[in-house]
Description:
This protein has helices spanning 2-32, 36-64, 80-85; strands at residues 67-68, 75-76, 92-96, 103-107. By secondary structure, the chain is an alpha+beta fold. The protein has two domains: 1-64; 67-108, no CATH class. The strands form two sheets. It has a two-stranded antiparallel sheet with strand order 1-2. Strands 3-4 form a two-stranded antiparallel sheet. The chain starts with a helix and ends with a strand.
Amino acid sequence: xxxKRRGLAIGLFLFILAICIGAILFLYHYKSGMSTVQVxxxxxxxxxxxxxxxxxxxxxxxxxxxxxxxxxxxxxxxSAVEYFLTMRTVNQAYLKCPKCQKRRWCKR
Length: 108
């Protein structure tokens, strides 16, 4: 539970930071007429911060997600790639069960 809260807090903080940097960049560029290179550097920094936020949030979700097969009730913990590429809803994911080898909508 601590891992989930900490990861979500860090991810949300980084999202807010990236949005603030973007707003400041827009306002400062609009008022002062910054050069294109300065705008590009600040935009790159904002993209890096945004990517870090995405990483923290995705890692937190992958680490805390456990699904159960509706047929055999096997516990399924998807890998990060599988979690990222699978179809999901809030409480379900379309996963392949390692025990019965069937693809089903598995509940959390």
